[in-house]
Amino acid sequence: MRNLSIAAFLFAITIVHIGCSGKKTDLGEYYFEKGDYENAVKEYNKVLAIKPRSIEIIYNRGRAYEELGEESKAIADFESVLYLEPDHIQAHLSRGNICYKNKDFENAFFQFNEVVKKFPQSSEGLMFRGKASFKLGDTGEALQDYNDAIRVNPQNGRAYYYRGALNVYSKRRKSACKDFRKAEELGVEEAEAAIKKYCK
Q1: Crossing angle of helices 55-67 and 23-34, rounded to 10°
Q2: Structure pTM?
Q3: What is the per-residue burial (b if ≥16 Cβ within 10 Å, else e) of 12-32?
Q4: pLDDT tens digit sequence for 174-193
Q5: Could you give the CA distance from residue 176 to residue 187 in angstroms, rounded to a whole number?
Q6: What average pLDDT score do residues 109-131 get?
Q7: Contact by Cβ (8 Å): 139, 170
Q8: How far apart are CA 180 and CA 167, in angstroms?
Q9: What is the average pLDDT value for the chain, to the nearest integer?
């Protein structure tokens, strides 16, 4: 009888351990990677019911909401993350990208600028701030940001691609084609079409 009680106790401990081991977090990520964003949100909600201040899970749920097109919920999650951790670089970038997608370029610039102010060596932050600057009509600042993004990370293919687009806009075709070829070399799919269009 005593052995049975010990076995039951050990089984209960095992169940509790499994329940608290983060497997639900993994399950949420599993659904996210599969593109099943609705189930990802459900799994993230289960974790947040236990750990409501989990920055990682709130951010991941925001990403899932964004993929579902529920941008107001995504923004709310990204802002919750920034409230808990003001230096969360990915939350700033994600918030900025939603603003950019909705043509709110001033707020997009603000979010990307926050990243660059806090992390001057963020190649992504510089690149995205350059995109926002371009949309706001400041091609000089955009070019500088693209240059800096490439200087910080020479493997940032998208920075080459966007700089190439800016060079097309500024009628610097030779420089544009050089950038598009480098972007293609670094795996940016859109670069191939740009080369065919501008670099014959």
Answers
A1: 20
A2: 0.80
A3: eeeeeeeeeeeebbebbbebb
A4: 999 999 999 999 999 999 99
A5: 17
A6: 96
A7: yes
A8: 10
A9: 89
Determine the angle formed by the axes of helices 173-185 and 190-198, rounding to 10 degrees.
Answer: 150
Tokens of 85: 């951790």
3-state secondary structure of 85: coil
CA angle, 45 then 51 then 54, to 5°: 85
Is the dihedral angle over the CA atoms 74, 75, 79, 82 positive or is it negative? positive
CB burial of 46-66 (b: ≥16 within 10 Å; e: otherwise) equals: ebbeeeeebbebbbbbbbbbb
Whole-angstrom Cα distance, residue 178 to residue 199?
9
The set of residues, in sequence order, having a beta carbon less than 8 Å from that of 138 and lying 6+ positions away, is: none
Q: What is the pLDDT of residue 64?
A: 97
Task: Determine the Cα–Cα distance for residues 69 and 71; give it in Å rounded to an integer.
Answer: 5
- Residue 21, SS3 per DSSP: coil
Distance CA 147, CA 163 (A): 8
